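Exercise 7. Given the encoded structure of a 213-residue chain, write a plausible sequence.
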């Protein structure tokens, strides 16, 4: 468990809300909640599951003869106490608006949080739980899928949620764990294929690789 001065992680509070902790762990969490307004606020957000997230601005395209400049998003605090952190402005000159039906990979970003390693882990171990945060444009709300590629397997550890709303580091409902001895690519996919193959996923999806220890 975190020290008395370290905020509780989202996953720890989610497990508390779901009743997954032991009696001793629950007593420790409740003692922490009695002392920390920040942890109580995050727990209330988990229970309500309807935190408001700022929408992303519409992207602009440039003339076809020029290179696109990069798009960067401002990350939010891992403790989620600043869940409404501002986005870095889109660094593109004025021009025609991009059709929302043609979303580029640079407009979707995936971030993982581990209950053991914290934000942006690069490994997984048995029993370790991961939560997903996605930065995506409003047009993709409810249309994203979380797909994992591991060895010859392809599976969805968390179901698609039609109520999921895109925003800046929007938390995907639920958490998942991995096992096995091969690296796993955790991907957010928004294409039209009901069963995208590995080539399509690695070309069009936003992915993060986790390796076994």
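Solution.
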């Amino acid at each position: 468990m975190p020290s008395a001065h370290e905020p509780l992680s989202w996953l720890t509070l989610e497990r508390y809300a779901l009743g997954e902790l032991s009696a001793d762990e629950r007593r420790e969490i409740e003692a922490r909640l009695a002392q920390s307004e920040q942890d109580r606020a995050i727990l209330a957000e988990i229970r309500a599951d309807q935190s408001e997230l700022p929408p992303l601005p519409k992207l602009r395209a440039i003339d076809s003869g020029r290179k696109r400049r990069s798009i960067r998003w401002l990350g939010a605090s891992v403790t989620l106490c600043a869940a409404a952190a501002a986005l870095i402005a889109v660094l593109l000159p004025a021009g025609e608006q991009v059709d929302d039906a043609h979303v580029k990979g640079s407009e979707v970003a995936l971030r993982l949080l581990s209950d053991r390693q914290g934000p942006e882990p690069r490994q997984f171990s048995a029993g370790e739980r991961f939560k997903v945060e996605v930065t995506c444009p409003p047009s993709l709300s409810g249309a994203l899928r979380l797909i994992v590629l591991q060895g010859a397997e392809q599976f969805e550890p968390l179901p698609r949620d039609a109520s999921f709303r895109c925003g800046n580091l929007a938390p995907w409902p639920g958490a998942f764990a991995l096992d096995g001895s091969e690296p796993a690519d955790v991907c957010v996919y928004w294409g039209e294929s009901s069963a995208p193959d590995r080539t399509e996923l690695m070309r069009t999806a936003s992915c993060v690789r986790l390796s076994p220890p």
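Remark. The two ends are 22 Å apart (CA to CA). Students should compare their own answers with the one above.
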